[in-house]
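This protein record is not my work; I was only asked to verify it. Would you go through it and say whether the fold makes sense for this chain? Here is the record exactly as it was handed to me.
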Amino acid sequence: MLTIRVAAAATAFIMLSGFSLTDGYDIDKVRATGEGASAVTKGSAFTKALTDEYRSIAVFEADQMYDWPDAGYFARKGLFTADGNVAEPEAVGSWNLPKDKVNDLSAARGELISLLSQGAREKAPELAAKAQGRYDCWIEQQEENHQADHIAVCRGQFASALDALKGAMMPKAVAQPAAAQVPAVPERFIVYFDFDKATLNPASREVVDMAVAAAKKAGSEGISVTGHADRSGPNDYNMDLSLRRAESVRDVVAKLGVTPSNVSLAGRGEAQPAVPTEDGVRMPANRRVEIIITQ
């Protein structure tokens, strides 16, 4: 982590100065916010959901990446929000980013800040927290810049959450004469899977929940579910795997109240990767199911 970021964090989160400077202590403390989080966190629905996001980042960085500085940083950010405080999305200038990635992250942050300033924290608190958490995940991974798959997953999850947040913030459409109506743009959600798995993990289940909620809110009668695989296995196996992933999503969608006959199902195997790779390459961004909500 950069000295500039540590300094910026100290300025932006002066209330955090009361916490221990020992990363391990802060990580353990933020873990506790997951044990009946509503009872141990304060503030709004947004700050509680944002605490969940920062706890997830901190635990992942500590337990799987052994990146104690970043784990400690996001643990302290999670403790800040757990106390009912509103934290801002990470500032681009506080991270040592590749020059060719600065514009993308700046534009993404600008869109997010615009929605937050329009009241997204109050109107759609869970979606707003998801978008901010996934943005901060993206910027942290982009600074490290050596795990393309992790970057792609965080960025993809941010894009899905931001799109859903935009939809939630749009004013209700005023009825127009039939001749003047413009076809609605389908909403799209991306569900990611673990390597060689067709079962939903907690993060991917959240995306399915968001998709179904969006479909119900829009009164949609059609949902398409298309499975994909990366290029790390044989073509035939990947086609079967992509179908099984799509079926897993369809089953959850049905359990959430969507009529099964309104769900179309398809598998594309490894034929349409989100991130093109050589054959045999494991790429989490390609292990996905795309959910499209139509009117």
